[in-house]
Known about the structure:
Blueprint: E1 2-4, E2 7-9, H1 14-25, E3 29-35, E4 38-44, E5 55-60, E6 73-74, E7 78-80, E8 86-88, E9 97-101, E10 107-114, E11 123-131, E12 136-140, E13 143-146, E14 152-154, E15 163-166, E16 169-182, E17 184-185, E18 188-189, E19 193-196, E20 199-205, H2 208-214, H3 216-224, H4 232-253, H5 256-273
Antiparallel strand pairs: 1-2, 3-4, 4-5, 6-17, 7-8, 9-10, 9-19, 10-18, 11-12, 11-16, 13-14, 13-20, 15-16, 19-20
Amino acid sequence: GYSKGSFSGDVESAETCRTACEKAEGMKAPDFKAGGGGYRCECKSKEDCSSGCTRRLLCQDSNYEGPEQNDCFHGDSVVQLESGQAKAMRDLNVGDRILAADAAGRLSFSPVVFLPHATNTRAATFIDIAISSGSSLSVTRHHLLQTCSGSLAYALSFVPGTCLRTVNGDARVVSAHPRQDRGVYTAVTDEEFIVVNDVIASPFAHAHSLAHAYYTAHRILARTFPSLTSMTIVRHANELVGYFGVVALRLIKTSPGLASMVLPVAESVRVSRD
Length: 274
């Protein structure tokens, strides 16, 4: 339970978060989130913080997993192996050669050099996207997919009629429906993009260029010491770096001057590697 001021009790719902914010902090704009079996309650001085506001973290359960850590593909998503067989993303291993694409869209089979997520049951909001080609994809809201123009966009922006790239050419979104489920997975290969359920996609969410540049080190490590990238301690360290990376990304997005310095550097690393 949580106790401060005139409030004492468990904060396990949006309503109790609102009450706690009012009684403990004197704020009437709560921000309640649930994820991973835990809860997080933050208090704001006003509802709309786009122009700035005061925020105070009231409490956060130790089991809470923020949705920003759970952006990837559903574990049932399928990739194509060089053997021609299909394999679910939750069953992938480092060293598997899967269908991937380079920045120019050329397809090839590329080795998996790193799996950012171990077997997991992390809660996430997935979007089930049905495509005119007959395939479908289940992916979290902020994962990045290729549009028909070659640019990347959040999965949540792929509404019916939106054009996206597949291995069979351009296709249209027929429907897109959100759902709650568990298990998030992705795979990093030697190439820049991966093919999942026939859709050409970034392996990453939020910021493709920054993540792609960061994983250059993993690609080098996989070629030099391949067994290291399969070690649990390396994956845990990577997740920790990823967490702080999301925090840094938020800072960059809210600081135009910083974004203008950092993003071109990440892009130059990508280009130099290619």
